[in-house]
Amino acid sequence: MFNRTFFLVIKINRKIILAIIALILLLLSASLVISNKTAAVFNTSKKTITVDPGHGGIDGGSSSFGLLEKDVNLQISLKLRKTLVNKGIHVVLTRDSDVSLESKSDLNSSRYRRDLHARKTIIDQSNSAAFVSVHMDAYKNSNARGIKIFYYETSNESKQLAQSICDKVNKMVFNEFLKTTEVKAELGTGDYYLLRTAQAPGVIVETGFITNPTDNSLIQREDYQNIIAKAIADGIEEYLFKAAP
Ligand SMILES: [Zn+2]
Question: 79-99: per-residue pLDDT in tens?
């Protein structure tokens, strides 16, 4: 009788112990998931993004209706920096004023090449997780319009970043602002110098066609520039979150 009770107690105790072990394992795995998520957020906030406003100084980029591409690129890039910094992301700008960058390169090449080489050097030296070059498109046919995001064909990260930005642009700029499905942001590939040579994955965002009257007047509006900057920033943030360990 004593023995039977004794074994029964051991049996019950074993069940309780197993239940406690299961509970501990469950809590441990749950806390691991939570700490992984916290780590991802933490890592994202420690990442550096280089924002590259295209052209500048002597190089106005494309121009139409009295508007110079270099000025729009800088205005949007400054807004993009502000939005990214507000998200806790560290930002490096290749330029924050109306200057070209060829004097920062020791390459024995054309002004244009040296300017681009200086931008690549800034991206590489900042140890960036990614970079975004901000430009505007131009075309002989003034009907061409819309936002285009170019990535480097053989880089999976570049493509993911482009897709992430494209999705946000379509959601925020078109669904919320333009409210039309006529013009959607498009992805494209291009063998551009910065995309090919910079160590970090990057994209070139063409924020509209300077040669199209609608794009040209929209891009000069503060609220339009803000929503484009926010869409690009949200796209970058999502990319960083997915890429975080
Ligand atoms: Zn350009």
Answer: 999 999 999 999 999 999 999
**Are 9 and 120 in a shared domain?**
no
Residue 18 Cα to ligand 1 middle (Å): 66
Cα-to-centroid distance, 55 and ligand 1 (Å): 6
Other C-beta atoms lying within 10 Å of the C-beta of residue 77: 26
The whole domain housing 15 covers 1-42
What residues have a C-beta under 5 A from ligand 1, the ion? 54, 61, 135
Residue listed under structure tokens 């690549």: 120
Query: How many whole angstroms from its chain centre is CA 30?
Result: 30
| 3 and 90 part of one domain | no
- The CA 75 to ligand 1 mean position distance, Å, reads 14
Tokens 């890429």 belong to 243
- Read off the pLDDT of residues 166-198 as tens digits, 9 standing for 90 and up: 999 999 988 777 776 667 899 999 999 999 999
| Ligand 1 center–CA 172 separation, angstroms | 23
CATH of the domain at 147: 3.40.630.40
Residue 66 CB burial class (10 angstroms; 0-12, 13-18, ≥19): exposed
